[in-house]
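pls design
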């Protein structure tokens, strides 16, 4: 919270004139019931100083500093409570400056592992997007200055239903200057390997198939034939030979 110093009353007697640390910063504070209650230390109005939203009137250079750092006109107007038309009046030249920085960055050369590339940033990104089936014409560029004085460049594009952004660090210099990738998306876009499709489809080998041999029919199981029993003939009695009869020999060989 900024500290103000009361320097007197306005000519109408209904406003208090205050100034900040810079004498050029002048503020007008209406003398109303809230101010009188706050001066008396009376909190009967049900509000404390912390409950009162304080709006700050920014100086033109403060507006431009916020815009140059990446804020939008709407963001500055909302945070300061100023009318958006007043913010736009001072923001316009800085917005042109940001647009020019982004345009210059597209002509810079990406810094790779082996040094600056021959292609420009725009040429590298166009090749990478073409490899993905996208067009570089559907991209948007923006830039803003950091506290260290260097520029951050943002490239945004849409792939399908997803919104994507990539960020680069832009250093102006000879031959267009250089850009360095800040995030993974930026690194992938300036990678020379992405000039070819990300997922190339390998050609399918044409295999020569021989005609399969004719299937061998499965053997048919035959029903087993009923076993044939050998017929046994009736046992015939042993007839002794004639000489056995004469000699008195039995058929068993005993005498």
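designed seq:
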């Amino acid at each position: 919270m900024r500290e103000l110093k009361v320097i007197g009353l306005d000519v109408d007697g209904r406003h208090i004139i205050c100034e900040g640390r810079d004498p050029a910063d002048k503020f007008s504070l209406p003398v109303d019931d809230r101010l009188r209650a706050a001066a008396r230390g009376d909190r009967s109005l049900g509000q404390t100083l912390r409950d009162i939203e304080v709006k700050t009137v920014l100086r033109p250079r403060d507006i431009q500093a916020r815009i140059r750092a990446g804020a939008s006109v709407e963001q500055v107007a909302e945070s300061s409570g100023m009318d958006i038309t007043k913010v736009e009046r001072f923001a316009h030249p800085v917005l042109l400056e940001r647009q020019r920085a982004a345009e210059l960055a597209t002509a810079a050369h990406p810094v790779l592992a082996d040094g600056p590339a021959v292609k420009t940033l725009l040429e590298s990104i166009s090749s990478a997007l073409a490899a993905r089936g996208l067009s570089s014409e559907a991209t948007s560029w923006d830039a803003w200055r950091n506290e260290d004085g260097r520029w951050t460049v943002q490239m945004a594009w849409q792939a399908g239903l997803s919104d994507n952004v990539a960020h680069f660090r832009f250093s102006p210099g000879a031959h267009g200057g250089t850009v360095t990738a800040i995030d993974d998306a930026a690194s992938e876009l300036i990678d020379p390997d992405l000039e070819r499709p990300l997922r190339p489809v390998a050609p399918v080998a044409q295999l020569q198939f021989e005609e399969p041999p004719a299937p061998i029919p499965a053997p048919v199981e035959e029903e087993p034939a009923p076993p044939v029993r050998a017929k046994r003939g009736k046992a015939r009695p042993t007839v002794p030979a004639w000489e056995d009869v004469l000699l008195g020999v039995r058929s068993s060989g005993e005498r």
